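Item description
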Amino acid sequence: MVPSKHQGKTSKTRWAEQIPAYLFLLPALVLFGLFAWYPMINSVIMSFQSVKLNGEDKFVGFDNYVRMFQNPNFGLSWLNSLQFALLSIVIGFIVPIAVAIGVNEMRRSKGFFRLVFFLPNLIPVVIYLLVWRLIYASDGGFLNSFLGTFGVEPQLWLQNPATVKIAVVVILTWANFGGTMLIYLAALGDLSPDLYEAAEIDGASITQRIWHITVPYLRTTMKLLLVLQFLTVVQLFTEPFLLTSGGPANNTLTPVLSIYRIAFTDNDFGLASAWSVTLVIFLAIFSAIYLRLSRSEAGD
């Protein structure tokens, strides 16, 4: 069927109406390409080169990737990230769920407690890390002073390989659980109060209501935030960098901190780019899982 002149004019008219919208989007697209896509593409190119700041870049094929896998810190940094992720699940994943359920069960002052628990998210990271450094200080730190009243010997919280990961995860949990709590509270806002009322009529206790109604309802949101938390922990940088510099004995060395060291301490930008590309691929895989879970939640 041949389109009529009227249909052709209508299509041209619609396109003309959309031009201003594209013009408004153009600056954002240019900036996004300049600060996101260009560095990413450039990193892929540099990962196949021997990059010298004062000379010509030389193509070396997959040599940087071979060196990356041969580097003992490659496996160590990913092992540390896995341990951080497992600890954050054990310590930090349950906390926002428990707090959100507790706040949701309150009859009064919900808004006040939401604000109180969210406040750590508003404190600049450098400020609260300085405070936590004082808390964990081996000599005169608040935590050691408090435990000393019970006869516990002072501990080297950030210098002991056995405690440093737990110490960092506790900080991460404290700093971020407020935002996660709000997401759970938003999900619980869609839960019909009739279900709770019916459970109360049937004589269900608070624990039974939470276990049989609230927790199953939050299951999809839990899966989403579990993947998102894993993605966040894998990109961990600021806390190890400022608190321990990757120590002690590289026990808090993460992939991002390794990339920083290789690039700006060793000046090996080709190898750092190979690490970056590997990290991006890993994050892309888990981001795809996250998006799939998001769509399934929207479909439900």
Summary: Residues 5-46 form the longest helix (42 residues). The chain has two domains: 5-46, 63-299. Strands lie at 49-50, 58-59.
